[in-house]
Amino acid sequence: MSAASGTSAATRAEICVVACAEAWRGDGEVLAAAMGTCSILGARLARHTFEPGLLTTDGGALLTAEPVAFGAPAGAVEGWLPFRDHLWLVQNGRRHVMMGASQIDRHGNTNISAIGDWARPKSQLLGVRGAPGNTIANPTSYWIPRHSTRVFVPQVDMVSGVGFDRAAALGPGASRFHGLRRVVTDLAVLDFGTPDRSMRLVSVHPGVEVQRVVTATGFELVIEGDVPETRRPAEEELRLIREVLDPKALRDQEVRA
């Protein structure tokens, strides 16, 4: 079976791209925003396949008529999305964003601002950016290319993105639009489908043992029975990833085999 056509030959990065794409399944006509190579490829793959109604951009303010290759010019453009219009989509729940996180806890609170005491941090990061508004106002997922106890922590050093526990504490005015969908990493797929909205292990990627994910997580994961394997890409998905969306294989620089 050739590398170009066999699903068994899919790399870990390609597994991750498909897992990211699955986060947008069922979304319909919303803006798919993503941060990170595999998550951007995932959004564009979803539009190419099972979610043709998704809106995707060139990485900037142009809505592309077709999903374009990673880093390529927009090509045919079907709309312009200035920042004010982008924010309208956020505030009205018409965007599903897949962000990154330097830290994330069991309820989905995330930190992209600073590591250590906020008054005198060890490391200054991006700042909270749009994370509070994203997590309160529109569906949010996460793509984390390095699953480790440095990222999956018992308590984040500063809350940038709002988790389920904090959204509930803020009351219905905040929590009614709050929704964290999926967390995709280089090892596994996780969600918050538990009664107390704590993180649950949904699947492990091919070749990854459940115990490896448990060891790489700094809090107790919810594990329900036998954990299935993350689905492998179909042949057409592999072709789209390799030949159309990422012919330079930049995905393999983010997630190495």
UniProtKB/TrEMBL annotation:
Listed SMART domains: CoA_trans
Signal peptide coordinates: none
Gene3D superfamilies per UniProt: Glutaconate Coenzyme A-transferase
SUPFAM superfamilies per UniProt: NagB/RpiA/CoA transferase-like (SSF100950)
Top-level taxonomy: Bacteria, Bacillati, Actinomycetota, Actinomycetes, Streptosporangiales
Family indicated by similarity: Belongs to the 3-oxoacid CoA-transferase subunit B family.
Transmembrane segments: none
Matching Pfam families: CoA_trans
Record protein name field: CoA-transferase
